[in-house]
Design goal:
Layout: E1 10-14, H1 20-30, H2 36-47, E2 52-59, E3 62-74, E4 79-89, H3 98-112, E5 118-120, H4 127-135
Parallel strand pairs: 4-5
Antiparallel strand pairs: 1-2, 2-3, 3-4
Length: 151
């Protein structure tokens, strides 16, 4: 087995610049159009920020999922918390345990960093995602409101 590879052949590792095509493809599948160049810019941003993380899941050397995490201090909780900002499993790799593996990986890394709370948001139209998170031990929290600021 390769480092960080589980018995099912899934390896999880930090994203690097050469992963931009895979990151763009996965974000597109989630409904967030992203070019290779835009993905490269996003990877650079994450790599330059020690409070952020972008991990890729691979099987047989092919990217099959990603998860991004942002650690932040919560005044309300008086502690650091981790926020999952994206979790995607490729269309052709779903229901194979890859999403659960990515969640477990960020949970382990968060515990190692002394973080005891992870938050994740999911669009209300993504019923499958809500069921997935509940099945992984996440409970519904607060309602989130969003306002897009124009130019």
């Amino acid at each position: 087995m390769a480092p960080n590879e589980s018995a099912d052949g899934i390896a999880v590792r930090p994203a690097k610049m050469g992963d931009a095509p895979d990151v763009a493809r996965l974000l597109e599948q989630l409904g967030y159009p992203c070019t290779r160049d835009e993905a490269a810019d996003r990877i650079v941003t994450v790599l330059g920020d020690p409070r952020q993380m972008l991990l890729l899941a691979e099987r047989d050397g092919h990217a099959c999922g990603l998860i991004s995490l942002n650690n932040t201090y919560s005044v309300a909780h008086g502690a650091e918390l981790a926020r999952i900002t994206a979790l995607i499993v490729g269309d052709d790799c779903q229901r194979e345990g890859i999403g659960k593996r990515l969640l477990r990986e960020v949970e382990v890394l968060s515990r190692q960093a002394g973080i005891s709370r992870i938050e994740v948001t999911s669009g209300s139209q993504r019923h499958g995602a809500a069921a997935f998170y509940r099945g992984c031990g996440y409970s519904e929290g607060s309602l989130r409101f969003v306002k897009l600021l124009g130019d």
